[in-house]
Amino acid sequence: MTDVTTAQFACFNVTIEDGVAHIQLKRPEAMNSMSREFWNELPVIVKDIDHNARARCIVISSTGKHFSAGMDLAVFGGGGSTSANQVADRHINAEQQRHHILWLQDCFGCLDDARIPVIVAIQGGCIGGAVDMTSACDIRYATEDAFFCIQEINIGMTADVGTFPRLCKLIPEGWVREMAYTGRRMPAQKAKEIGWVNEVFPTHGACVDHALVTAREIASKAPLAVTGSKVMINYARDHTIKDGLDYIPVWQTGMFSGAHMGEAFTAKAEKRDAVFQDLQPLKHGM
Fold first, then answer.
1. Which terminal CB of the chain, N or C, has fewer other CB atoms within 10 Å?
2. At 182, which CATH number?
3. What is the model's pTM?
């Protein structure tokens, strides 16, 4: 697996410090549009950080005027959503297309599935695929000039990489429908009012700084308790209240650590930072 601490990427810069991995989109001249390299690189980066326990929290930010203009049109033009090896039977092609869309969904699903929280700092336009991407993050911050747009309707298609399943859990359904049907932009302040973003900041720098401060605060907590919280929140989102209540004691029975709680209390009494063991790297294969 790629070691993101040493690898070079076409679309991202990656740094890890104080238990926080900072993934930064780095193509401002192209409005950080999602090229082929973007789709291939992002899951590699996120999974390497997560699976190898390289950090305790991830921050995603961007560069330039806009967070991301969404899917690079060159991907569409080059057959990015369809194979070059098309056959005459459209139904055969459609079956292949379904699996390609599922692959694209997994490129953002890795953010939702990661054991550690993912915070995103959004400036300027968050358009099309960028809405899919940021909706898969745990916490969203935005600048005053930020706006969100379900752009797909404006180019004659239905959003298919994660916007609707996740956004309907984040904001009132009526707002999802209005944006999806009209392609209108939603400004950051309105997004905050309806709970899409947690906070709005006057500048890009202030937004990113706050995201990093929050990430470092999360990184100071017991990693097992943090990942347990993410598992429980995601499970509650995807299941009934009864199912969620039933699953929590199952997790606690297996994962509760008295030693971690003891360290938290001792550190507070001694007025020092608590020291917790990182999560273990995940095993792949035998």
1. C
2. 3.90.226.10
3. 0.94
